[in-house]
Amino acid sequence: MIDHRRNHPETPSSESETTPPERAAGGAITDLYGDLFEKKWSMPKEVNAIPRSEASPTAALPAGEGIPSIQRCEAPSAPRSLEETGLALMQVCDLILKQLYLQGGLLGLDLAKEARLPFNVVDEALRFLKDEKCIEVATGELIGRVSYKFHLTDLGRNRARDAFEQCRYMGPAPVALEDYVRQCHRQSVVGMTCNATALMAAFENMIIRPNLMQELGPAVCSGRSIFIYGPPGNGKTMIAKGLGNFLNSGGGEIYVPYAIQTENSVITVFDPTLHDVTDNEDDLDVEDSDESMRLLNENTVDRRWRRVRRPVVITGGELTLEMLDLRYNSTANFYQAPLHIKANGGVFLIDDFGRQIVSPRDLLNRWILPLEEREDYLTLTTGKKFSVPFEQLIIFSTNLDPRELVDEAFLRRIRHKIQIGPPSRELYTEIFELSCKQRGIPFAQPAVDYLYRTFYDAGKPPRSSDPRDLLEICQSICRFEEQEVVLSEDLISEAAQRFFCQI
């Protein structure tokens, strides 16, 4: 799961994708609540409905460990003809001309690999370009046109320059919009398998209140929208991350296209900073290790798509209405899909809802139709509108009063509302004990008793994040005084006075 609030490079338009960061494995134990309120984070911290003081934190586990795997959805089949690609002949020709212009002579097999299309589809375009005297054959082997090496002629170079002027997209051939819509419905989160065992495995290392799983489970099964609210410091963000982790690690695999094409416009969708790939781009078919045979085989997976874990896209206070629209590159003349489209088939988390630059009312108005109809409308620079699926589990998380943020019309469209309140004393003690263990500090029950006697019983509500914060202050004090951390009443009192002081 990758947070959009990290530095977010543009999606590459060619094969220069970067490998997504791997999940941390091994190493020292980290704090379960250590990143509860960090503004930047990369991977979810998994949590648990049952206290697991002996469990190691999620960051030390391999991806998906302990989470029952779910079969991946049906893969898109490779097109058997140019017509089945959904592309016009000239669109495939333009991709070939641009590849030859930049890379010089290429084998027919290499051109098919660059376009991620079976050779028989590319061969149709090669024959046309040769008849038009745009390309010529430099060398050739006896095995056929797949081994011919093609070069541009002078006319071909002129045509390639014209193609670059129209669109500088250089990635794999895009898929037709209708094929993208069909695949999104196949791999929708609605009705996805979710049971108590699988969900609890995704929440393995968090101590949360009883019966919360009974609220979260049906919300995930619905595949609709979830509104998580409550006072700050009680784990709303981590619970939302846990839901994202369930879909990302245990929700199976889906397919995302490099790009889609509609109205003669190219829109990039695959984003290596957001999509965690599970295939190997060098292996065009896992059932066949011979690359040339794979490209000639008609019954293979369409390689214009990448197999990925269900994506989890997170945005916070920086969200604007412009980020929910197509981003047009006026120099390259193609578009980048907005964040919520990249999240199709996964989770789109709006954290700190109500604290965005745009007003909550404007943002809610933008979501009314997608939440109701499960489709969104995007607009090209030409003014042409087209619909795209809105097939994701969308989560709103806020510590503000929901009644001040949303009206009844919007709340009606949010199927599940889940309140996360302060922990009970028993739950707080378990969290405190686990936080001590993660820091190598001997747990002392009198420290918890002192906090309740002095602060919580006097009216200050406890927060699930308080043990983490107080223990960090205790460590700082002892480090400065060059002594071991022992949770005496004097030490916890000094830490609490610093932390709970009124400003």
Task: Give the N-to-C terminal Cα separation.
Answer: 37 Å
Largest sheet: 6 strands, parallel
Point out poorly predicted stretches.
4-70, 284-291
CATH uppermost class of the largest domain: Alpha Beta
Helical segment tally?
18
Quote the beta fraction: 5-15%
Average of pLDDT: 79
- The strand count comes to 18
Shape assignment: elongated
Just name the CATH architecture of the largest domain.
3-Layer(aba) Sandwich
- The helix fraction, in percent, is 25-40%
Structural class: alpha/beta
Tell me what the structure shows:
This protein folds into 3 domains: 287 residues, Rossmann fold (3-Layer(aba) Sandwich), CATH 3.40.50.300; 85 residues, Winged helix-like DNA-binding domain superfamily/Winged helix DNA-binding domain (Arc Repressor Mutant, subunit A, Orthogonal Bundle); 76 residues, Helicase, Ruva Protein, domain 3, CATH 1.10.8. About 15% of the residues have low confidence. A 6-stranded parallel beta sheet has the order 1-11-14-17-6-18. A 5-stranded mixed beta sheet has the order 5-8-9-13-12. Strand 15 and strand 16 form a beta hairpin. The chain is elongated. With 503 residues, the protein is of the alpha/beta class. It contains 18 helices and 18 strands. Keywords: DNA-binding, Proteasome. GO terms for molecular function: DNA binding. It comes from Symmachiella dynata.
